[in-house]
Design brief:
The protein is 35% helix and 21% strand. It has a 6-stranded mixed β-sheet, sandwiched between helices. It is built from 10 helices and 10 strands. The structure holds adenosine-5'-diphosphate and magnesium ion (MG). Magnesium ion binds next to α1.
Length: 292
Amino acid sequence: MNDDSLEVRQVTVRFGGLTALDGVSLTAPPNQVTGIIGPNGAGKTTLLNVLCGLVRPESGSARFAGRELLRLRPHQLAGLGIARTLQGVGLFGGLSVAENVMVGATCHARAGTWPALLGLLRSDRDERMLRARAMAALELVGVAEHADRMPGTLPYGVRKRVALARALASGPRLLLLDEPASGLSEQELGELGTLISALARDLTLVIIEHRMDLMMSACDSITVLDFGKVIAAGTPGQVQADPAVTAAYLGIAADGGEAGAGAAGAGEGGAGEDGGRPGGPGGPGPAGGGAR
Ligand SMILES: Nc1ncnc2c1ncn2[C@@H]1O[C@H](COP(=O)(O)OP(=O)(O)O)[C@@H](O)[C@H]1O
Ligand SMILES: [Mg+2]
């Protein structure tokens, strides 16, 4: 055991008139997989962006291993042992797989990530060390044989693994994954679940994901967001059985639920920007469902 807990307390984020996060609190303990789920537009990515210093919350706090994160700049994260993957893939098309992962490893090597890859490596030894770290990360996620390929020539599932290797190459103590399973086949999904469980033995892992089968099998606990609020939290079994969660995914009000969001959700307000909520009609609602 260690003290590498992520503690998010009462985080509120507003984008103009839209409250993307509304007093969100959650705890991600070390050596566990903590899941965040919720319909499109619920605020999941915004929460990760807050943790990475990309979005400044109006109020609240987020601490990792006792250190406040909310006043940090994104480039300071690696120094604190925090790494994330992006929704989608986000690899550099002009760099080989190994070079992409070396970008992740450089922040471990020394401050100043970019100069190294731009040809300013101070010695061959630096470069060999970075490459060794990158290869170890690629090995860990099972795609080392593709090290010298260009990302664009590889199947989507392999590219997702490379992106994960890049995050791992910095040797993180807190790993934040934004939809790592999107676009993966059933078999790849199972392999990812196994990998995630294995990784969590050595770090604090937070995962956002739509694929419920993965979340149910891989997560120790799950927090459910809807319209920026935590509507449920608990073990996968507990949240799956929670009527408020089912209602949020169907875009209808739970019994006795909030009239405003719920009533709108059944018709137009519940439709997210990606064509509506799972199970919903996918109607032409206003973006994000927050407009009134
Ligand atoms: N930079 C931004 N500016 C304005 N609105 C944003 C911004 N980022 C996200 N939003 C809005 O905040 C809400 C939450 O978005 P997001 O965190 O991406 O949801 P999720 O990842 O759960 O699908 C959505 O309504 C989205 O349109
Ligand atoms: Mg998102």
